[in-house]
Design a protein that fits this description.
heterodimer, A: Ubiquitin-like (UB roll), DNA polymerase, domain 1, 2 domains, 5 strands, 31% helix, B: alpha+beta, Uridine Diphospho-n-acetylenolpyruvylglucosamine Reductase, domain 2, Uridine Diphospho-n-acetylenolpyruvylglucosamine Reductase, domain 3, Enolase-like, domain 1, 3 domains, globular
C-alpha cells in the first residue's frame, strides 16, 4: 500500500526548470503556492485562483495546466516549467521576443501564461495554423484585449522557429 | 480549505482499499479542488488515482469494441487522429469543452462525475435544495442556464459535453469497488435529483469508474456533436446535441439524439429515435423528432430561448448525418 501522507505538511520533491527542488507544504496547497511562495518564482501569476483565467499556466510534463488548481503534492516527481525557465543564458525565448516585437500585451499580467501556452503548442507542432494558435490560448484570458497581437506574436515565433 | 491526507496508489486494488469513509478520489482535480475550496466537498483524505497507469489510454479490439480508461486525459482523446476517425463525436464534443489546460488535467471519469454549474449550488452561502436545503433558488431566481426539461426539485442541468456524445454511442461504463465490478449503461449513471436523491450521479461510495466501452456495432454509426455557447470558447453548453445513426441506402437506422444542457441528466426520448427509424432525415422528419423531444419542455423565466436553440441544433445535427 502507498503511504498516506499528511494532513500536516509533507515533503515534496520535483523538478522545476531543470533543477531538483523540494518544498515542505500541507497537502491542500497548490503548485502555484509552491512556485511563488516556497521557490520564489513569482513570474507565474496569481489572479483568479480558481482555474478560470489562465494567468497561472505552467507546463507539467510538457503540458500546459493551471497551477492554481493543481495540488502541489500531486506534482511529486514531475517536471515543471515556468516562465523563468524558458529563456536560456540570458536570451529571451523566441516567443518572448515575438511578444515584444508585436506589442502582444498591455498590462502584462496574463503574459507569462500566454507565453507558456504558445511555447507548449510550438513544441508539439512547429508550424501551427492560425486557428490552432488561437485555440492554444483559449484558456488564457487577456482583459486588456491584446488577443490579436498575441496570436500574431505566436505565429511570428512559429515562422521564425523556436529551435 | 480544510486539511486532508493524501495517498497515490499505483494499483486499482490499493485505491479501492483506500477509498473509505471520509476519503474522495481525485484525478485531474479540475472540479474537485474548487469544490473543496468552497466547502462543497470536505474530504478527510484524497486518493489520487493518476498513478494507476492501467486506467489510462484507449484500445480498440475487433469483437470487443472501444475501451477508454477512465483516467485518460480529455486532451488525449481530443487530439488522437485514430480516435477522430473511429468515434468522431468524442473529439467533436471535447473540442470546445473547457480549455486546453483543463483538457490536459481533466480525465474521462472526472468529466462524467463533475458536479453541476448552477450558481446557487456553487455559492457556498446559499442553502439550496440540492445541498440539503428546502428550496431551489434557481427555479424562481436567475435561471437562464437552467433546465427546460425533466427537472424535479432542482433545475440544474447536466454540464458534460462528453456524456451526450458517449450516450449517443450507447456507451457502457465499468464500475469497480472493493466488493466487485459492475457494468451499466452510461445513461444510468445520471439521475435526476429528486426526493431523497440529492445528487446527480448513481455511483456509490467506494466505487470508481474504471472504463468506458463502446461496441463495434455502435462505432458503425455516423455521428455529429453540436454545442451552442454564449461565447466562442471556454463556456459550458447552453444546449448541446449528439446525433448518431447508421445510414444505409439513404435511410437512417439506430438513430440516437442526446441533449446536454437542457435537463438535470443527459436527455433523450426513445419515441423520437423510433420516429426516425428508416427516415431519410429530411428537414420535416428532423423537426418532427425535435418537436417530440421538446414536447414536454417547461421553460423557466429566463431560458425559453433554449427550446428554440435545441430545436434548430437537433435539426442541424441530424441533417449533417446525411449531408
Amino acid at each position: 500500500m502507498p503511504p498516506v501522507r499528511g494532513p500536516n505538511a509533507v515533503d515534496i520533491a520535483l523538478t522545476v526548470n531543470g533543477h531538483a527542488a523540494t518544498a515542505h507544504l500541507p497537502s491542500q496547497r497548490s503548485l502555484l503556492e509552491l512556485l511563488r511562495g516556497e521557490l520564489g518564482l513569482t513570474g507565474t501569476k496569481l489572479v483568479c485562483n480558481a482555474g478560470n483565467c489562465g494567468a497561472c499556466t505552467v507546463l507539467v510534463d510538457d503540458r500546459p495546466v493551471y497551477s492554481c488548481i493543481t495540488l502541489a503534492v500531486a506534482c511529486e516527481g514531475k517536471r515543471v516549467e515556468t516562465i523563468e525557465g524558458i529563456s536560456k543564458d540570458g536570451e529571451l525565448h523566441p516567443v518572448q521576443e515575438a511578444f515584444i516585437d508585436h506589442d502582444a500585451y498591455q498590462c502584462g499580467f496574463c503574459t507569462p501564461g500566454q507565453v507558456m501556452s504558445i511555447v507548449a503548442l510550438l513544441r508539439s507542432k512547429a508550424k501551427p495554423t492560425e486557428d490552432e494558435m488561437r485555440r492554444a490560448v483559449t484558456g488564457n484570458l487577456c482583459r486588456c484585449g491584446a488577443y490579436v497581437n498575441i496570436v500574431k506574436a505566436g505565429m511570428s515565433a512559429a515562422r521564425r522557429g523556436t529551435k | 480549505m480544510s486539511l486532508f491526507s493524501y495517498a497515490k496508489p499505483r494499483a486499482l486494488g490499493e485505491a479501492l482499499r483506500l477509498l473509505k469513509n471520509g476519503t474522495i478520489a481525485i484525478a485531474g482535480g479540475t472540479d474537485l479542488v474548487g469544490l473543496i475550496r468552497s466547502g462543497l466537498a470536505r474530504p478527510e483524505g484524497l486518493v489520487d488515482l493518476t498513478g494507476i497507469d492501467g486506467l489510462r489510454g484507449w484500445t480498440r479490439e475487433k469483437g470487443k469494441g472501444l475501451r477508454i480508461g477512465a483516467l485518460t486525459p480529455l486532451a488525449d482523446l481530443e487530439t488522437s487522429p485514430q480516435l477522430q476517425k473511429l468515434a468522431p463525436m468524442i473529439a467533436q464534443s471535447l473540442r470546445d469543452a473547457a480549455t486546453p489546460q483543463l483538457r490536459n488535467m481533466g480525465t474521462v471519469g472526472g468529466n462524467l462525475l463533475q458536479r453541476n454549474r448552477c450558481w446557487y449550488f456553487r455559492d457556498e452561502a446559499v442553502p439550496c435544495w440540492l445541498k440539503g436545503g428546502t428550496r431551489c433558488f434557481a427555479a424562481e431566481g436567475e435561471n437562464r442556464y437552467h433546465a427546460i426539461l425533466g427537472a424535479a426539485e432542482c433545475v440544474m442541468v447536466a454540464p458534460s459535453d462528453l456524456a451526450p456524445a458517449l450516450i449517443a454511442y450507447d456507451a457502457e461504463i465499468e464500475i469497480a469497488s472493493s466488493i466487485g465490478r459492475r457494468t451499466v449503461k452510461l445513461g444510468q449513471l445520471f439521475v435526476t435529483p429528486s426526493g431523497r436523491q440529492r445528487k446527480e450521479h448513481s455511483i456509490k461510495k467506494g466505487e470508481l469508474i474504471t472504463s468506458v466501452r463502446i461496441s463495434d456495432a455502435a462505432l458503425e454509426r455516423r455521428g455529429t456533436f453540436l454545442k451552442a455557447m454564449d461565447r466562442k470558447a471556454w463556456s459550458f453548453a447552453l444546449v448541446s446535441v449528439a446525433a448518431s445513426a447508421r445510414i444505409k441506402d439513404g435511410k437512417a437506422r439506430d438513430v440516437r439524439v442526446v441533449l446536454g444542457g437542457v435537463a438535470p441528466v443527459p436527455w433523450w426520448v426513445p419515441a423520437a429515435h423510433k420516429l426516425l427509424e428508416g427516415s431519410a432525415l429530411d428537414d420535416n422528419s428532423c423537426l418532427a423528432a425535435a418537436d417530440l423531444i421538446l414536447a414536454s419542455a417547461q421553460p423557466l423565466r429566463d431560458n425559453g430561448y433554449k427550446v428554440t436553440l435545441a430545436r434548430e441544433l437537433i435539426r442541424r445535427a441530424l441533417r449533417s448525418l446525411v449531408a
